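Hi support team,

I've been running sequence recovery on a batch of backbones for a student project. Most finish fine, but this one hangs at about 90% for roughly twenty minutes before it completes. I'm not sure whether the input is malformed or the queue is just slow. I've pasted the structure tokens below so you can try to reproduce it. Let me know if you need the job ID as well.

Thanks,
M.K.
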């Protein structure tokens, strides 16, 4: 067992050690923006404040940052996210984080149970789709992305075809949020991190 701190900073370092693709780093950051925002919301719903609320948001951040950290080196369904999970286990990362990361891959057979599991899955594909929606704007800015436009693009099969519309819909449903609200919530979360995301 490697003794290390399990913070956003160490998660960020681990992500960058394993990932050379700038697109994947951006993906991690955009999923983090959305997932963390759900962590902040969850903390408020649970009546948490101060350090407890911050700790919950940090857990959501770390989970999102690390969910694809092995993907650059091990993209196959045989290896991702299992190779990553092995490393995270060896490094002593909390079980709730590893469970959510395993559960974000439908084919892992790990069911989505916790709010964190469901939030990560709900944000993963949508963050990618919102990025694609921003990049086709003349400004390439997330500030010009609106819910109605995103819904329209979801119906356009040729647009960002790698992004599963079913995953987006099922993600919102699994999290128990209305799809339009979910899209609006994630747009706002990404707008707040627009500088960091380069959008
Ligand atoms: Fe993944
Ligand atoms: Fe992902």
């Amino acid at each position: 067992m490697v003794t290390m701190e399990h913070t956003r900073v160490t998660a960020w370092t681990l992500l960058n050690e394993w990932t050379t693709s700038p697109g994947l780093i951006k993906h991690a950051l955009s999923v983090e923006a959305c997932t963390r925002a759900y962590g902040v919301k969850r903390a408020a719903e649970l009546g948490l404040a101060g350090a407890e609320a911050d700790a919950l948001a940090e857990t959501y951040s770390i989970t999102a940052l690390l969910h694809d950290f092995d993907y650059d080196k091990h993209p196959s369904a045989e290896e991702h996210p299992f190779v990553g999970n092995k490393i995270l286990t060896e490094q002593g990362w909390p079980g709730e984080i590893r469970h959510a990361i395993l559960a974000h891959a439908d084919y892992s057979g790990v069911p989505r149970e916790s709010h964190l599991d469901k939030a990560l899955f709900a944000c993963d594909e949508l963050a990618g789709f919102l990025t694609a929606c921003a990049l086709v704007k003349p400004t390439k800015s997330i500030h010009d992305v609106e819910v109605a436009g995103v819904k329209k693009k979801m119906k356009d099969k040729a647009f960002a075809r790698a992004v599963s519309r079913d995953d987006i819909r099922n993600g919102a449903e699994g999290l128990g949020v209305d799809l339009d609200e979910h899209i609006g919530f994630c747009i706002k979360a990404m707008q707040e991190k627009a500088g960091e995301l380069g959008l």
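--
Follow-up from support: It reproduced on our side and the slowdown came from queue contention, not your input. The CA atoms of residues 100 and 113 lie 8 Å apart. No action needed from you.
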